[in-house]
């Protein structure tokens, strides 16, 4: 029964935080609205309860922090504007978009993707040998030769 309740709490909490995040990304809710903060805090605390039921301590810790951050944001909005908490609602006309700035348009690649092209851009990683370092390349080659070979079937 505890596992079932933990599972229900975890999934409801996760769904709540995802819904809040998606509504914020779509511009329906602002990150500072009480609806977003309430759903985010509630979802984080419910997901923390689900993680606690399973003994998943890292997930419990991250979700409890997430829920407490949302709860603090909610507290801050009530502290900042307490009179608007329950009395004032501002209707938004349907024809007015919440987002005022358009989303950026990502640049398209100049040429279409070709799966036969396997040339990668050169990168420099300090732990990898450089192409001009013959001594390191020889050491790597010797290490590859020294590795045991798999038995042939």
Q: Can you tag this structure with a few keywords?
A:
153 residues, mainly alpha, 4 helices, single chain
Q: Secondary structure elements and their pairing?
A:
Layout: H1 2-25, H2 34-54, H3 57-80, H4 134-146
Helix pairs in contact: 1-2, 2-3
Treating each run of at least 4 consecutive H or I residues as one helix, how many helices? Answer: 4
First CA to last CA: what distance?
A: 51 Å
Global morphology: extended
Helix percent reads 40-55%
Mind describing the biggest β-sheet?
A: none
Question: Helices and strands: which structural class?
Answer: mainly alpha
Q: Total number of β-strand segments?
A: 0
Radius of gyration: 27 Å
Strand content: under 5%
Return residue spans where pLDDT drops below 50 for at least 5 consecutive residues: none
Summarize the helix and strand pattern as letters. HHHH
Mean pLDDT: 75
Write a short abstract of this structure.
This protein is an all-alpha fold. 54% of the residues lie in helices and 0% in strands.
Plain-language structure description:
With 153 residues, this protein is mainly α. It contains 4 helices and no strands. α1 (2-25) runs antiparallel to α2 and α2 packs antiparallel against α3. It is extended, with a radius of gyration of 27 Å. The two termini are 51 Å apart. The model has no long low-confidence stretch (mean pLDDT 75).
């Amino acid at each position: 029964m505890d596992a079932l309740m933990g599972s229900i709490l975890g999934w409801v909490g996760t769904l709540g935080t995802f819904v809040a995040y998606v509504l914020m990304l779509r511009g329906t809710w602002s990150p500072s609205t009480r609806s977003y903060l309430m759903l985010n805090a509630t979802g984080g605390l419910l997901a923390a309860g689900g993680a606690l039921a399973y003994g998943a301590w890292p997930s419990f810790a991250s979700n409890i922090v997430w829920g407490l951050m949302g709860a603090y944001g909610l507290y801050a909005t009530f502290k900042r504007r307490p009179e608007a908490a329950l009395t004032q609602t501002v209707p938004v006309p349907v024809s007015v978009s919440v987002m005022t700035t358009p989303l950026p348009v990502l640049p398209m690649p100049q040429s279409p993707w070709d799966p036969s092209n396997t040339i990668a851009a050169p990168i420099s990683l300090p732990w990898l040998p450089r192409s001009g370092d013959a001594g390191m390349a020889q050491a790597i080659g010797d290490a590859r030769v020294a590795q045991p070979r798999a038995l042939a079937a």
